[in-house]
Design goal:
Strand content: 15-25%
CATH class of the largest domain: Alpha Beta
CATH architecture of the largest domain: 3-Layer(aba) Sandwich
Shape: globular
Structural class: alpha/beta
Strand order of the largest sheet: 1-4-3-2-5-6
CATH superfamily of the largest domain: HUPs
Number of strands: 9
Largest sheet: 6 strands, parallel
Number of domains: 2
Bound molecules: pantoate
CATH topology of the largest domain: Rossmann fold
Helix content: 25-40%
């Protein structure tokens, strides 16, 4: 596996690649969810490129950025074992030579759900993903359905800007008790980890959105939203863990008609 810290070196290498390219963008702290994206890309493409870049522009809360888990050496070993061909580990100056002067904004859906609670989050996501797609020039890019709102916004951005890339959604990978895998799970202490299992259990239940939100609040969660939209139930809720707070999201298909 080749590692590129320099964008110039990567671009030169990209010119030499023939055949299809699959891309898995990440912020590091890789888990089995990322592993499933990498496996799929390796199976479907001639080359698989991974990016590890903790993108500051998508964090509205500085403490969230500082506390985000960082496991670079472990990530590189995992990516190599899974058959990734290249990994990009750029720095802020490489990704934002413009100092974030140019931004990709969506002004409807990005203001709902997570966007209503994380100011500027999706502008940061769309901007960095646009930059990464322009750099990697993949045929396919793989995104987990845990971040379903992110997936929809990226898919629609690529369509709106006539980008020649297929955005591939991949099923959420879960722990045996239903908890969606997330890099943030590493921040859960024992008590928070055992409470976190309630999120998935409740959103799969036949209770209404309001009832699910109330039950989570009764169990000590701070709930941003529990909303059913287009036959999918979305949730975002935070819970205390040690000295900090961990925000978790999840979504499931909800065809019960109960909202
Ligand atoms: O889903 C993520 O890890 C990030 O939002 C992404 C897509 C890598 C952009 O920074």
């Amino acid at each position: 596996m080749k590692r590129f810290a320099s964008i110039a070196d990567w671009r030169e290498h990209r010119h030499s690649l023939t055949g299809s390219v699959g891309f898995v963008p990440t912020m590091g702290a890789l888990h089995d969810g990322h592993a499933s994206l990498l496996r799929r890309s390796v199976a479907e493409n001639d080359h698989t490129v991974l990016s590890i870049y903790l993108n500051p522009t998508q964090f509205n809360n500085p403490a969230d950025l500082t506390g985000y888990p960082k496991t670079l050496e472990r990530d590189l070993t995992l990516a190599c074992d899974l058959g990734a061909d290249c990994v990009l580990t750029p720095r802020y100056e490489d990704i934002y030579p413009d100092g974030y002067r140019y931004q990709v904004c969506e002004d409807q859906f990005s203001r709902e759900l997570c966007g209503a609670h994380r100011d500027g989050h999706f502008t940061g996501v769309l901007t960095v993903v646009m930059k990464l797609l322009n750099l990697i020039k993949p045929d396919r890019a793989y995104f987990g359905e845990k971040d379903y709102q992110q997936y929809l916004l990226i898919r629609d951005m690529c369509e709106a800007f006539f980008m020649d890339v297929s955005i591939v959604p991949c099923a959420t990978v879960r722990e045996s008790d239903g908890l969606a895998l997330s890099s943030r799970n590493e921040l859960l202490d024992e008590k928070a980890r055992s409470a976190a299992t309630l999120i998935n259990r409740l959103i799969r239940s036949s209770r209404s959105d309001d009832c699910v939100a109330r039950s989570l609040e009764d169990m000590g969660f701070e709930v941003d939203y529990v909303v059913t939209r287009q036959e999918r139930r979305f949730v975002a809720a935070s819970l205390p863990s040690g000295d900090s707070t961990v925000r978790l999201i999840d979504n499931v298909v909800n065809t019960s008609g109960i909202t």
